[in-house]
């Protein structure tokens, strides 16, 4: 595994964590180009990955909701994101602390400061997968590789701003937008890893 990939992943995770705490800003842009290199390998490498890691669950994004999210999956399951909407979408998968029992639908509606309390102030997504319109996993995973390894409840959320186009996934830095994030339009789901 390339060394600089780890660094980039880490940076991205921190950026996403900051975004989570600033839900209203929806400032979750892709600030690196490393994912582009993965494009050619992700779609065709499915067979080898399933044999070792287990199932791949294909989630579909529309404007603005997730479809095909199972209630629960086994640890080691890998997520894939197909975008059938007219805007770019992302899967941000964040493990919910065990002591938190409220459903995701309540958690995502919390004010920023309470949201910070839920995730201990520094939520680090287990994985983040980006998908431009009309694609599957393009550019793909920018945090982790789409695999959920730790059992528990996960929030599946999209923080991209309403009205954005695919360029936000290529932009350096967060998108400049005052538009509400997709999560505010109902683009969230709950998934249990067992
Ligand atoms: Cu979205």
List keywords for this structure.
21% helix; six-stranded mixed β-sheet; 194 residues; Immunoglobulin-like; binds copper (II) ion; disordered N terminus; 5 helices; globular; alpha+beta
Write structural notes for this entry:
With 194 residues, the chain is of the alpha+beta class. The chain has one domain: Immunoglobulin-like, CATH 2.60.40.420. Helix content is 21%, strand content 26%. It contains five helices and ten strands, in the order H-H-H-E-E-E-E-E-H-H-E-E-E-E-E. It has helices at 3-20, 39-42, 46-53, 104-107, 112-118, and strands spanning 56-62, 65-67, 72-73, 77-83, 89-96, 127-131, 139-143, 147-148, 152-157, 188-193. It has a six-stranded mixed β-sheet with strand order 3-10-9-5-6-7, with helices on one face. Strand 6 (127-131) and strand 7 form a beta hairpin. Residues 1-19 and 21-52 have low confidence and may be disordered. Bound molecules: copper (II) ion. Copper (II) ion binds at residues 61, 64, 89, 158, 160, 182, 187.
């Amino acid at each position: 595994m390339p060394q600089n990939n780890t660094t980039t992943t880490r940076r991205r995770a921190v950026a996403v964590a900051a975004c989570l705490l600033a839900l209203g800003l929806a400032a979750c842009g892709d600030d690196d180009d490393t994912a582009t290199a993965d494009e050619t390998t992700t779609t065709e490498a499915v067979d080898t990955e399933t044999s070792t890691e287990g199932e791949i669950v294909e989630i579909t994004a529309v404007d603005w909701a997730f479809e095909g999210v199972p209630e629960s999956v086994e640890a080691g399951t890998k997520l894939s994101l197909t975008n059938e909407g007219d805007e770019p979408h992302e899967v941000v998968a964040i493990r919910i602390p065990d002591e938190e029992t409220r459903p995701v639908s309540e958690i995502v509606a919390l004010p920023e400061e309470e949201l910070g309390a839920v995730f201990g102030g520094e939520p680090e997504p287990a994985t983040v997968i980006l998908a431009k319109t009309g694609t599957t996993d393009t550019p793909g995973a920018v945090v982790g590789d789409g695999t959920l390894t730790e059992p528990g409840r996960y929030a599946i959320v999209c923080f991209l701003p309403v009205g954005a186009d695919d360029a936000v996934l290529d932009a350096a830095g967060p998108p400049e937008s005052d538009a509400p994030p997709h999560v505010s339009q109902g683009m969230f789901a709950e998934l249990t890893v067992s």
